[in-house]
Amino acid sequence: MAHPPVPSRLYWPALTLAAAALILAAISLGVAVQQPDSGADPVVIVPTATPVPTGAMWSLGTGGWEGEPYHEWVAVYPTSTLWNILGAPSLRLFDHAPNEPGQDRSFEIGFYKYGPTLYTANHIVEFWIGSGEGGGTLSVIGNDGTGGQLEVRNPTDTDHISLDYRQADRPRISAGKNPLYLAADGGLVSESPHTFARGFDVPPQSGHAGQVRDGWQDGAVTVPTRAVSSGSLVLITPVSEPRGRWWVDAISAGESFTVRSTAPEEAMAFNWLVIN
Hints:
Radius of gyration: 43 Å
Strand order of the largest sheet: 1-2-3-4-5
Structural class: mainly beta
């Protein structure tokens, strides 16, 4: 009858080392769970917030310890600079390393009386748009499909220049109360076949244009308009055959201009345009 082989003596050193390792592990575990003999509470280090004397609800910055003032970099405030009411929060970013030392810059996304706003005390804000392929495009359109409008306000916020494309068939550049001046050192160029393909549309109520069909007396007719001044150019376009040779005879600034003819019985109908 066969018997299992008797273990060789070479296995005993390995078994002895394994048993010793188990004993040491048990001793270490027992020491780890024991309370300190001194009875003192363990020391717990609690991080403290850096003082933020800015009034922000949340802030990221550097400094704030003794001898080093706190420099705020990014913060969320409960109010906005232009709308100082709780509940109109703003996100503010600060630049403490400008090209001109001592003149820190800031940029704020917040609210104003009429809606969301971007605010900065810096004299310029730049938009860098595009990936280098064809330039960048700044686009504005209404969410409700009504087109878009851009306005530039005057210093007192009482007038504006408007770029308006809210009517699909009527793109419009306009100024409110004052004349609109166009200036270019190289001149103004139209890419239309004609300088103004449809001519000028001047509303009669502006006082700068109109039509005369009667009113001639003794070879003269006076046209009232407050738009005329001493330096105005008055353009006359006959719409019926004149009976004599006609010209603009006199201008009363802010009141009227007079057209005169060599024919005492003149009855020419004409359109007129005042250019200041």
